[in-house]
Give the backbone structure.
Amino acid sequence: MTESPHTRNSGNHGITAVRDALNNLLVLLKIAMAALIAAFCMSGIRNLEQYEAAVIFRFGAIHGDAIEEPGLILALPFPIDEIRKVPARRTRIIESDTFWYAVTDDEAVGGKAAIPDTLNPETDGYVITADRGLIHVRSKLNYRIHNPIHHIVSHSDVAAALRHILDNAVLKTLSERTMADVLASKTSVSATITERVRDAAADMQLGVAVDPVDLALQWPRQLAGTMNEVVRANQETGRSLAEARIFAANQENEAIGKAAKVTATAMAAATRVVSRAEADAATFKKLYPIYRRNPNVIRSTLYQDRMRKIMANVDEVFIIDKKGNREIRLNLPRKRSQTQNKDTAVDAQ
């Protein structure tokens, strides 16, 4: 059978079409391969945000230091290099209600619900204090990542580890104190819990910086009435103690003032006595040589001076004349001056 020219041309066209299709497919494959190679090479370039830090792992091992500057990161393509990012500059929050009572749906949205008669250990959390009291605790912890390498390699879930550390610190701290101490010293309790959380996080090398722990404390709701009376009694006791301290301070200040006044008066009197004694001693030293030379004159002078002072303070004077055997009485009514009274008082001292 002889092949017609039309059939021969149709076969040539088919072969040409298949060849062109194969050539186009080969071009597409080359383009796809080039795109894949380019994507593979570019996979090691990542962008680091302002709040992020990154660590490069090469074949599973840490390569270099942590990268904390924002911008592009150049690394080898995966799986040679692996880039792990962490939000190092963002504050993260962990809240724990492990030791809080169960909250109903109505209470969660701000509504009120009936308070059960007793605690349910299966749903209600609480801590037993040192004096065997029950108290509900809700804690909140803020932390930041300060060592990205430790944070990435230390634990698979750092947030869960910190929550367990927080619960353990709360349980240990409150079990060492009485309920009254816990309620009265919330700041001290929070400081102790914070210190224990920081120590545990440092021991586990979690690479985090912990802020002070915030606590919400509440005694069991079933005891609200009784505890309110206890609080009022404690407040009244505090007021009474404050008033007693104020009264004691006033009495002490008054006593100190009186003592200071008495001391000052005694010191002034002592100074006057010493000054007078020194003046008398100085006068005696001056008069003694004169007395030795003229004892009768000095004796007469002292006698007259003393008699002058005596006569200035009497109302009647008797003059007895030995020769005439007579007695003369002189009435000397007079009004003493303040100067005389002062001299008399000084002489009496």
